[in-house]
Design a protein that fits this description.
Layout: H1 7-20, H2 24-45, H3 49-55, H4 57-76
């Protein structure tokens, strides 16, 4: 779990953003996206195999086809 930012951390980030020409709202949006990414990563890490297959059927299909192709090609040589 990421550490909680202090008020000083936010002020420091805002000062850096102003120097770079980035508005406060853009920094807040980026921070929100980062938190969302951490949360989604935790959800995906705790998925069972069946949940992952249901959530990502095309990725599962692609991985199966690629694996099957590689194994088939290796057996022929």
């Amino acid at each position: 779990m990421p550490k909680m930012d202090t008020k000083n951390d936010y002020e420091h980030r805002d000062a850096e953003a102003k120097l770079a020409g980035i508005e406060h709202d853009e920094v807040a949006d980026a921070q929100g996206l980062k938190e969302d990414a951490y949360n989604q990563e935790a959800v995906e890490a705790n998925m069972t195999l069946i949940q992952a297959v249901k959530a990502y059927p095309m990725a599962t299909f692609w991985a199966f086809i690629m694996s099957f192709t590689i194994v088939s090609l290796c057996r022929r040589t």
